[in-house]
Amino acid sequence: MSLDPHGRRLVVDAEQDGLRLDNFLTALLPDHSRSQIQRLIKDGHVRGPGAPRASSAVHTGQVYEVEIPEPAPASPEPEELPLRIIFQDPDVVVLDKPAGMVVHPAAGHTGGTLVNALLHHVRDLSGIGGELRPGIVHRLDRGTSGVMVVAKHDRAHQELSRQFSDREVEKEYIALVWGVVQAGRRIDAPIGRDPEDRQKMSTRARRARSAVTRVTYSHHLKGVSLLNVAIATGRTHQIRVHLSAIGHPIAGDAKYGGVHRRVAANLRAIMRLERPFLHAARLAFTHPGDGRRVEFESPLPPDLQSVLDEIREGETDDA
Q: How confident is the model at residue 4 (pLDDT cuts 50, 70, 90)?
């Protein structure tokens, strides 16, 4: 079965059995919001069993074809979107990216991105990233929230890019994962495109790039572990792939096995998650202007904090 370059052929596995079609597709097409997926379904760009509707339940073994129309090329437009800026000076902008926001325009997602918001809030961004990615030095997944740095001019962009490349930037995340993971765990496994699903990354890829993930802190709750995770490399989906590969996927991560249809009573709050429980909590780098070592932090956003609080309350009730 062949599709054009903008098509996707997706097969439902056992973990996804029973999900709504729009939720299933949103999990496997992370660059598209749920509303965009619903529009694709409504406009007839999704083919599968019966007459696909957003609310249709998917079942193991079913195959869906998704046609993603080629977007009309356009320069990103400034958009007055909410954006929490943590720090700003003539060289850099440090911000707290909300979950659900794509970093830069991509196929099928030309508006509502972090770049669109930056063009409204910041008028002097670096052009080195190109017309569609001004100032962007690194990325966070659409479903990942947290701290990012953006360059405001080309010299700052070049220096920050060098620091990321030379692994001089410290990046620490907070993740809630299934099972028990001990602090000190080190995962050293190259990552590349999954040989069976090009929409996913994998440690089983034929062509892969080195990646190292370290668990620097762990707090065990009943059935899950709250982790601090540090990475020097920044491969696509790195933390999600590595934790899934060792059998401890991130809670709420449908793409890498972190969504369970049945959970223990003390963990029911996890069912509210609409994205992976993954947050970029800390970022440290050498300031490209004056050479100071600077560090920025972002607290857990309310959607993740409320889930964690409820799980902890359940632990107290059981005590």
A: very low
Distance CA 259, CA 295 (A): 33
46 phi/psi in degrees, rounded to 5: -120, 125
Closest CA to 82 of 99, 69, 67: 99
Q: Which of 141, 253, 303, 318 is catalytic?
A: 141
pTM, full prediction: 0.74
**19: pLDDT confidence band, cut at 50, 70 and 90?**
very high
For residue 277, what are the CA distances in angstroms to 191, 202, 283?
21, 19, 18
> Tell me, what amino acid is at 293?
R
**Rounded-to-integer distance, Cα 22 and Cα 177, Å:** 24
Rounded alpha-carbon distances, angstroms, from residue 12 to 49, 131, 164, 204: 12, 37, 36, 20
Tens digits of per-residue pLDDT, 243-289? 999 999 999 999 999 999 899 999 999 999 999 999 999 999 999 99
Separation CA 118–CA 107 (nearest Å): 19
Contacts of 307 (CB under 8 A, 6+ apart): 176, 269, 270, 272, 273, 277
Whether 141 is catalytic: yes
Residue 285's CB is within 10 A of a number of other CB atoms, namely 22
- Of 29, 46, 99, nearest to 255 by C-alpha is 29
**pLDDT of 181-200, one tens digit each?**
999 999 999 999 898 887 89
